[in-house]
Fold this protein.
Amino acid sequence: MKVKKQSKVSRKAIAPVAGAICSAAETQAVVSAVMSVNKNGSEKKVLIGSRVADQNSEAAKKRNYLLDDWNGGAFTVQRNNFKHKSLSSWSANPVVGCMHACPHCYVSEIVLKQKAKLAEFGVQDPDGEWGDYAFLRVWHEEKFLAALKRAEAIPSKDLNADGNRAVMYSTTTDAYQTFRYGNADFRDEKNAQLKTMRRRSLQLIRDESTLNVRILTRSPLARQDFDLYKSFGNRLMFGMSVPTLDNDLSKAYEPHSPAPTQRLATLKAAKDQGLNVFVAIAPLFPDCDDEDIRRTLQAVKDLGVMTIFVEPINIRADNVERIAAIGRQYGKNLKLDVFDSLERWREYAYDQLKLVQRIARELGIAK
Ligand code: SF4
């Protein structure tokens, strides 16, 4: 797999399918796209990411140090600067790194900004080692509250209009991941700390602010917080990433995440409990055809979600090489030729978004 040199893609190229499309009173389908691509993606060799290694291997055991407390900054709410995405105005990211290790993830490029700090923690290659490290941010209640108060003080007119004055859990990690490195006691302690941080921070947002909350996860673990979500009333919307309902295809693209059918069942459970739910069909796999997308959208329609968020795979960092490596590992012949050139990628992104929009219209969930 070679990725040719690419430059920033003009949003004009996708204008017809970007933005919000609305239909029935309760249903708002938002089709948006982020079209930034890696400027340095030329002629890279395929990397076999260490995330594909057996977690019980000697190499994996030596990675115990890659799970620790991140003293490079406390867990707070932080203003995000999404320009083409909706759903939130602030991010709440309790972890640096992500154990879900999705090969398509481009957060590894974002964390490169913290390369020096990560090196102090033993991460030499934040992109190549993506999925093998996760640092739990430290919890300072006073700092969290101070950041919350600062956020609360910002007038709505100074925020992105489609951010809903909402805090998103999470945008550069999954707040419902499970740490899998370290001995059992250490791991259990960190997982318990993460749970406590999630719940306490949500309680503070609920009780000490008027901000809304959006939860986006790939993990059914979120069920353990449904009671808390319900206490927010209409201030909270719960969502899951469901790029496809084909568990087999998902295994090739997201091998460490719970199966999409489990995610759909979690969404249904949330809906049954009276929660407002949304779905992120993100990222759109190039292999998803009309039938696949129709199945996902029909299930989403049956759920009665409030919002659908759609995004193609963006070429950033080494994510295309990672997808190729995982595809080979699972013996999957994935449609990765769409990443061969900027033109091919643009065609894939545009066509997939148009396809989603067309099917959404046919199913009556978009205008
Ligand atoms: S769950 Fe989200 S943040 Fe985590 S690896 Fe997957 S795409 Fe990245």
Observations:
- The domain at 11-362 is CATH 3.20.20 (TIM Barrel).
- The longest strand covers residues 276-284.
- The CA atoms of residues 76 and 146 lie 9 Å apart.
